[in-house]
Amino acid sequence: xxxxxxxxxxxxxxxxxxxxxxxxxxxxxxxxxxxxxxxxxxxxxxxxxxxxxxxxxxxxxxxxxxxxxxxxxxxxxxxxxxxxxxxxxxxxxxxxxxxxxxxxxxxxxxxxxxxxxxxxxxxxxxxxxxxxxxxxxxxxxxxxxxxxxxxxxxxxxxxxxxxxxxxxxxxxxxxxxxxxxxxxxxxxxxxxxxxxxxxxxxxxxxxxxxxxxxxxxxxxxxxxxxxxxxxxxxxxxxxxxxxxxxxxxxxxxxxxxxxxxxxxxxxxxxxxxxxxxxxxxxxxxxxxxxxxxxxxxxxxxxxxxxxxxxxxxxxxxxxxxxxxxxxxxxxxxxxxxxxxxxxxxxxxxxxxxxxxxxxxxxxxxxxxxxxxxxxxxxxxxxxxxxxxxxxxxxxxxxxxxxxxxxxxxxxxxxxxxxxxxxxxxxxxxxxxxxxxxxxxxxxxxxxxxxxxxxxxxxxxxxxxxxxxxxxxxxxxxxxxxxxxxxxxxxxxxxxxxxxxxxxxxxxxxxxxxxxxxxxxxxxxxxxxxxxxxxxxxxxxxxxxxxxxxxxxxxxxxxxxxxxxxxxxxxxxxxxxxxxxxxxxxxxxxxxxxxxxxxxxxxxxxxxxxxxxxxxxxxxxxxxxxxxxxxxxxxxxxxxxxxxxxxxxxxxxxxxxxxxxxxxxxxxxxxxxxxxxxxxxxxxxxxxxxxxxxxxxxxxxxxxxxxxxxxxxxxxxxxxxxxxxxxxxxxxxxxxxxxxxxxxxxxxxxxxxxxxxxxxxxxxxxxxxxxxxxxxxxxxxxxxxxxxxxx
Length: 790
Hints:
The chain is an alpha+beta fold. The chain is 44% helix and 23% strand. It is elongated. The N and C termini lie far apart (150 Å).
């Protein structure tokens, strides 16, 4: 081509090619047949650092280093159509850049080539070549298996870990020429990956089963990829495989466990929903958190605190979340849908539920396990049902996130038990009639006989005196028998005070010795540091007397009766107790008799010799004092009865000297209103008070007493009222009387109170109470004491 033609060609290229070349992201250069740059795109400007006009004034030798230019010309001559070559490109600033060019020529001798900078790749390859030696050294010490194969699938490298993992030596693997350890069920899948390696593909962390030389199965995770030479040509494959058997086994175990859990959960849900008993699933985790806060604030007696602080108990209740209820629970409470009972317990919680709820929280906190109780539940329809409830922490006991509540409706059972109890009471009434009729008939015989004799007017003075004394003693014995009956039925008001058991025994010792007789030795051993207790002194004296009499009757041929006191702990949780032990060396009891010893009206004595109330009375009085009883006995080896009374920390107050007011001090110094519905009792009471010198008014009912109060303009100093009366009882009368006459003192009198004066059978120390029957001296003392304290 002439120079003029070349110039026109160069100009044509400049006009036609640039718009097309700009679409290429890589640098593109076009050379005319003379080796001059005929066209270039913007990417070529950036690579070369030259402007478009500057490039168009350059020849190809200006773009390459001399060695690269010579190499370029040589490839152009040997591969005139196209070739790929790595050369050094010279930038305008003189810097050398490694580039890879892909060149092609056409028939007219025009050369086009694309240049890509390979600086980063060259650095990587250099680093790879430098690290290859280090890699091979390191691979020998790896615990993972490392392998390399050439393109003919011959083993070129294997580290020592391969034999440890597979059991095959390097020689075995070389002979095999292939990864022959793959499990048959995984072989097709892994062969597909293996074949793709030789096409330049790679894979990572592909898991399969490997069979070792000795037949064991292992799980491995394999990562493989191609090996390239300096020119980027694949020359082999290499990989790393590590054992993951433990992890796969753990995952399989977990999977099976989760599967079993799902099956168990399904079974549980079926059993839960279809259970004939009402069941609840609740979340107490937020209750647990609140209890932890209370403990952090120093609360130790959780049950007592929640009982005394309703807002704290309410906070616990509001933190309970009902997660699920079964069909039986919905039917029990009368709920149409499950949603009516989910969320909180507001719809089914009433006042009767507070006490068991507080106890439930305290017990769960102490045990993290189980709580049982019986209480009255109210349904949504308002029905009262008696239920036996079991609350158990089903999972995560440290969190209470799943609590199962089961109800057992025992209303019908309780009704049957009540009917049985009533039947037993009727049987007891028959037994008591036979048991005490003899004693009361004897007493009535004495009273009626001497009364008729005295009323006839023909009795001698000494007979009259004897008769009055016998009537008085018969009345005292009748009062004692009645007191035993009341103590057994817990209808007798106790007046507990701090007291020393040792002092009571010392005061009674002389009388006890006379009771047991000369053929029985009395041994008394009292702990010098004995704790005080809180009990009714009169009742405790009766307890001691009953035990001593029983001991005496158990030793008809004589023996030893021992009374021992000591400080003790009944058990670790119950705290300190004062122990009173009364034992004998008598005939003892068999097991059947021992189990019935506290049964009312049960006696081993012949008919007519006892009522069977002695030990029942002991049980009632000790229980009323908060104590416990145990009995140890064997035939022929005697009996030991142990009474445990709670320790009372307060000291025993000194007994005040008895102050019996002189007759002159009581005469005409007070007005007493006596209220008693029983005419005979009212008449004798008024007579005693008038004989003492009091101004006495009387009423047969509470209503009449209020009328007398309204009509009386003068003061009334004392109201002496019976407790049990038709209509208005004594407690109600005293309350209404106090509103009208707040300065009037009150004394209550009763044979029994039927819980009117005290729900627990223990009288408030501030209440003035006179137990029937009483004598003139007892009446005079309490009236004088109350009026003098005014």
